[in-house]
Structure formats: structure tokens, C-alpha cells
Amino acid sequence: MVDRQVTPASKLGDHADVLSNAARLFREKGFEKTSLKEIAEACNMLPGSLYYRYSAKETLLVELMRRGVDLVTAEVGSAYASSDDPVERLRLCINAHLRALLVDSDAVYVLLFEWRALGPEAREDIIELRDQYESLWAGILETMIEQGVIRKNVDGRLLRLIGLGALNWVATWFDPNGTQSLDAIGDLIWQIAIDGVISKDVQV
């Protein structure tokens, strides 16, 4: 397992600042092209202070990815719990995933697009965490199939893979200054899902 860096309680503010700036730089420049020196400069820290806390960039990347998984899991879980209507739940969960990816934190973006930069041991840990998040979606969709909300002949695993792939790809083209809001895009994806897989017996 990958060792997790322990930060003293008095340094938690600095710790959050380091993670935030690292996530932003990894997203803007890519993991490979970002140096620890650049992250230290963005945090107004001496490079030596950052090197003392994070002896390698990968340690930072793993911590960011753990944060990303925790964030998106909490967002989607909260959205799911906020409604009793299964079709509305799906809409809320889709929009929660998009917000976590594109609004709330750069860490989720880094999780999705920089995991190949990890070494074998760290990659195994992060893939396990990613699979735990995807199992949340698997449960949501399988429950809808069991309830007859999604048609019985729909492959839940394939639906999950295609659906999450479509949601994640929004991060590569979404323009916050464009004509469509993130919620509007999420609602369109939801509408496509309704038209394609929701049972005709279900009132929307």
C-alpha cells in the first residue's frame, strides 16, 4: 500500500493550499510537466519546505486522487439521498458528478485523467478507490433495473461504463463561458438516458 503523508494539525491550512495549487497545476499543465518547485512557488513556500512534506510528486498525486474520490462519492451520495423518486435521483446524481468534476474541485479531474502517471503500486490503490466509486453507480443503476424503472433487457454494467464515460468526457470540452450551463448539459444527458433506457411504464 502507498504511505499517506501525515500533516500536523497546525499545518492543515497549508496542507489544503498545497493540494489545491497542486491540483490546479496538474490540471493546467499535466502531472509530468509540473514540478514540485512550481507548486511551492504557487503556495508561496520555500521549495525545501514542500520537499520535506512531499519527497516525491507521486505522493501529492495520490493524496489528491484520494481527495477526488472522497469528494465525488460524497456529492453523488448526497444527491441520491435527497430524493425518493428514482428517475429524479438519476438526474441529481448525474449533475452532482458533473459539478464535482468541473466546479467543486480540480482533484476529481486529476483523478480521472492523470492516473496513468502513477507507478504500479500506487496505481493499484487508486484503481481500487475508483472501483469503489463506480460500485456506487452500479448499485444505483441495478436498483433501477430491479425496480423496473430501467428496462430489464438493459445491461447495467454497459450502461454504467458508457454513462460515466460520457459524463467524464464533458470535462474535455465544457466551456464555463459557453451558451450551455453545466446543469443544462447534465439534464440533456439525463433526458437522453430517459429516452433510451427508462421503461415506458414509468411516468417522468
Automatic annotation (TrEMBL):
Keywords: DNA-binding, Transcription, Transcription regulation
PROSITE patterns cross-referenced by the UniProt entry: HTH_TETR_2 (PS50977)
Source organism, top-level taxon: Bacteria
Source species: Marinobacter adhaerens (strain DSM 23420 / HP15)
Any GO molecular function: transcription cis-regulatory region binding
InterPro entries per UniProt: Homeodomain-like_sf (IPR009057), HTH-type_TetR-like_transc_reg (IPR050109), HTH_TetR (IPR001647), KstR2_TetR_C (IPR041490), Tet_transcr_reg_TetR-rel_C_sf (IPR036271)
Domain HTH tetR-type span(s) in chain numbering: 12-72
Database matches in Gene3D superfamilies: Homeodomain-like, Tetracycline Repressor, domain 2
Pfam families, per database record: TetR_C_24, TetR_N
Protein name: Transcriptional regulator, TetR family
DNA-binding residues: 35-54
